[in-house]
Amino acid sequence: MKVNVFTTAILALLTLVSCNSEPSLQKYFVENTDKKDFISVDVSSDILNLEKTKLSAEQKEAVNSFDKMNILAFKATDKNQTEFETERKKVTAILKNPKYQELMKFGSGKDGASISYVGSDENIKEFVVFANKKENGFAVVRVLGKDMNPNNIITLMSVLKESKIDMEQLKPLQQLIKQ
């Protein structure tokens, strides 16, 4: 009996310790995916529609390092500017965590964009693009992969120009663009 109580107490303690209450983009995505002002899209690497046999070794490595993209967008309207500002501040606060290393930032004031990453320079696990504009809303794009590096991302961008992107996967985002 004492062993069961002790084991239960240890398991409960481990559960509490392992629960991280620190905000993260992943938690933010999960919490907001189904809310009315948000649009969520998960995009697999299949979207690229590439003929892999025509790719160079460097291009294949770049494509293979890319797993998927998660996109969460908030569509701003005249009626939800308070919510827009609140949600924008939440994302900005999450991205200030030292785990998100900022690569670049552009724009001014409350309109602009930033690109950050998680991981080391040679083993990037996640790229994050955060763009916002008061009139339209904001979008957070998480590019997830394995062993990504800046060269892979640049190469992947050049491969995107040659790809036949499957627009069906991006259909939910069309309502954000239409105003």
TrEMBL record:
It holds the Pfam family DUF4252. It comes from the Bacteria. This is DUF4252 domain-containing protein. It comes from Flavobacterium johnsoniae (Cytophaga johnsonae).
